[in-house]
Amino acid sequence: MLPDVPDFDIYAIDHLPENLIVADQRLIITWDDGKISHYPFVWLREYSPDAGTFNDITREQNIAVTDLPDELNISSTEIGADGSVIVNWQPENLDSRYHPGWLRAHCPSNPKPNFELPKRTPWTATRTATSQAFPPTFSGALINTDKEFSEWLGALHSSGVAVITDLPIAPEALEKVVDRIGPIRTSNFGRIFDVELKAETNSNAYTSQPLRAHTDLATREYQPGLQFFFCMENSVSGGETILTDGLAVAEKIRTDHPDEYAFLTEQPIPFVNTDRDSEYRYEVPILETDHHGDITTVRFTYWLRAPMTGDLATLDSLYSALRLFHHYADHEDYQLRFPLKPGDLIGVDNRRVLHGRTGFSPDVGHRWLRGCYMEREELESRLRVLDRQRRFRSA
Amino acid sequence: MLPDVPDFDIYAIDHLPENLIVADQRLIITWDDGKISHYPFVWLREYSPDAGTFNDITREQNIAVTDLPDELNISSTEIGADGSVIVNWQPENLDSRYHPGWLRAHCPSNPKPNFELPKRTPWTATRTATSQAFPPTFSGALINTDKEFSEWLGALHSSGVAVITDLPIAPEALEKVVDRIGPIRTSNFGRIFDVELKAETNSNAYTSQPLRAHTDLATREYQPGLQFFFCMENSVSGGETILTDGLAVAEKIRTDHPDEYAFLTEQPIPFVNTDRDSEYRYEVPILETDHHGDITTVRFTYWLRAPMTGDLATLDSLYSALRLFHHYADHEDYQLRFPLKPGDLIGVDNRRVLHGRTGFSPDVGHRWLRGCYMEREELESRLRVLDRQRRFRSA
């Protein structure tokens, strides 16, 4: 039987080890396609799948690096009949058996993950005009299948927006879908919130006024990664949904307006959301980037900016940058605009895609959306698990 | 009557405006203590507390910067008998009345916030040994008062750990306290989780094995900011609680080991938490810093590191840095160690203070903690609101 792996995944064996060399504190494997992998001793030792190193129920490490001997050595190596790699560790005299598929997938210099998340692809209104299917739209009748559900989630990940139509028009319809992804993130607006006209309200969302393209909850250090809206009723005149890809806006500004781009990515901006029973504050650039320079968060709850402090030149730069960002975010070339129908569920990447609505008359008809937040990582986790299950089925 | 302010706060009027000048697209106020404040037109205009600009129920802005006229002007200014500042905006012909306390507090070049969060103060075992009251400890009998509750929260913010003793030993005791702060963050371990021995488990936390000082959920982009544990039972031999201030460890490494500090703050490290129904992954330096270079997150769920990739020199640096971090985090000079008693509730800043436990015998006695997560910003929001309420009462 092939050795256990230190996770819950399945690893194809596309290549077998042909030769093992121990040298320079590492195990060097030559594979049957000529590729060579180098595994440092401590690296290899800490991922030994034996029950002392990995808890075989949780598949979590039982040890820390400091629990291992200072001087590790391999006294013997062997390639098993099934291609497994067997080494004897000294001074522990521990025999460790490694799965060749796992070793190959985790080659430190050339890893091959079983699954990679789809790429994020920016979009504009004009760049999607030729496609009938934007935003990506899926049928509520089919969403119960893992295949359709995966495709919806994949589209939501790569486009930052994806729709399901024709779900049963019932208050619990939202949770029935999103519970299949992961835990909902509760905020001061509750776990599920009803977006409709409210007299005694604590958010502009609960009025009939128009809302320009924006993200939600800019005052949270981790601005909610995903937002879901389910349409229960929409019989008002107006109240159309607006969507703008903040990633496309940011890339446009990066290319054409480098000064404003530098300001937006570097200058911390104060945000505040104050209510009778809460007061959230956070100071952060409007565009956050990772160590590759890729944009990770667009933060644009424009009505929650706190009064800016700083010298007058900084304040001037702020207003120039804001006007520029609004210019593109509210421009028809960048904006999708469509009415939600009862039974529609829309998922939006709230750290990337801005949403808004046109104003509506509060006197005729009723507009009622149910909404909730969730982290991006729940979507990513679900995509990985669905793909893992697919691989198990096809193995 | 004094003008409204664009938030829910109260502003003391310690100084009155003495003179107003309009020049260079700004209003210049000379105060009665000789201080001078400059308010750019667009800044001043966008915080006009009139009902068109600010929704007087939500106290949120109704407008975006792009809704304002391109060319703003002030045609007249006046200081009211109550010290309010009245300006007439053109071309809108809008009279705006500003509260002098609000204006002074928000002076762009010299703001004076009503409230500032307490400073974070690193601690070690030796630096706290002379103090009887560390970790800061509060009585369950008094925690119902806002004053005691504020002090507990303030201590939790500044020390990263604070205890309440002698709460009623009941499963709901945890929620009764933490619900007063803000919403709990649900994870794949649930909203509230029971830390006790479990046979079919998905986390090392639910075993009897020792756990070195660590943070929880390193695989989440936003590693939970706060963790609360409430002790229901603790009759085992062993199972003592371990606490280490990761901030103190990081500062020690910054001072004495600059190469390792650079690695820990700059090199993204992959983390993975894989289960039958979830697979969370994130890649990030172990120490995250803000634009001031201050440490915002210590990430050290050591058993959730994914197999590292990269060149062999990077892998060598990883293991050196990990050994160094463990060395301090597990060192008696840095570590507090004490048994939790039934009725104790401990709050820990999970992005800063590492926790752990000594192993215990699974056969004698029972150890049962109830736990949950929450974001740091809920604590900060609650501290602000409690202070605001205190100021309203004393006004």
Secondary structure tally: strands of chain A: 20
Strand content of chain A: 25-35%
Q: Give the overall shape of chain A.
A: elongated
CATH H-level name of the largest domain in chain A... which superfamily?
Clavaminate synthase-like
- Helix-strand sequence of chain A: EEEHEEEHEHEHEEEEHHEEEEHEEEEH
The name of the CATH architecture of the largest domain in chain A is 4-Layer Sandwich
Properties at a glance:
alpha+beta; NE0471 N-terminal domain-like; homodimer; 395 residues; four-stranded antiparallel sheet; 23% helix; Double-stranded beta-helix
Written overview of the protein:
The structure is a homodimer of 395-residue chains. With 395 residues, the first copy, chain A, is an alpha+beta fold. Chain A has two domains: 17-114, NE0471 N-terminal domain-like, CATH 3.30.2020; 137-385, Double-stranded beta-helix. Chain A has helices at residues 41-46, 100-105, 146-159, 173-178, 246-256, 258-266, 312-329, 376-394, and strands spanning 17-23, 26-31, 36-40, 73-79, 85-90, 94-98, 137-139, 161-165, 193-195, 211-214, 226-234, 241-245, 269-274, 279-284, 287-289, 295-298, 335-338, 345-349, 353-357, 367-374. In chain A, strands 7-8-18-11-20-9 form a six-stranded mixed β-sheet. Chain A has a four-stranded antiparallel β-sheet with strand order 10-19-12-17. In chain A, helix 5 packs across helix 6 (258-266), helix 5 (246-256) packs across helix 7 and helix 6 (258-266) packs across helix 7. At the A-B interface, strand 14, helix 7 and helix 8 of A face strand 14, helix 7 and helix 8 of B.
